[in-house]
Amino acid sequence: MVAVAYDRFLLQSSSEKSNEVLTMMVVTRAVLNFIFSVFFSASYTPGYVTTYNAFIFSLNNKEGISAFKSKVADPQSAIYRLSTYGPTFGRGYDIFISDKADSNKKSLAAFGLTYPAPSGVQDPLTLLAGSDYFTPDEWEVFYLA
Fold it and tell me: 23 in the Ramachandran plot: left (φ > 0), alpha (ψ -120 to 50) or beta?
């Protein structure tokens, strides 16, 4: 199950599997079928996770820009892990999927902070999900073993 993979990433004790590198992809579909995702490969640590192996990509978006990939610009802030949060990427939360995301509008796509927006983007805060705060229609986590 995909949700189990993300729970495993969040809930491991720091002594358990502390050197394990996890490779995961989080795919999100927001209103109007905007689809964006994050791919990362990182070791287990609490708080901010440093990795050079992370990027956000968009398949379709509010501005109609063709599919693009944005590689992490600040590797020390690539991922944020907190047991009460859903998937969180970037300082300032380029992408944050809230707890119980299907029943609130607390998820955030403030893109362009840790992962740079492509040139020509008019509004990076609404590019990925259509608005900065949103309710995902779907999100899935894929754990690559």
Answer: beta
Whole-number Å distance between alpha carbons of 1 and 71: 27
Strands 107-108 and 133-134: antiparallel
The beta-strand segments (E) located in the chain are: 21-29, 35-43, 47-49, 54-60, 68-71, 79-81, 88-89, 95-96, 107-108, 133-134, 138-144
Query: Do strands 54-60 and 79-81 pair parallel, antiparallel, or not at all (unpaired)?
Result: unpaired
Higher pLDDT, 18 or 11: 18
* pTM for the predicted model, two decimal places: 0.85
Is residue 141 within 8 Å of residue 97, measured between CB atoms? Answer: no
- End-to-end Cα separation, the chain, in angstroms: 13
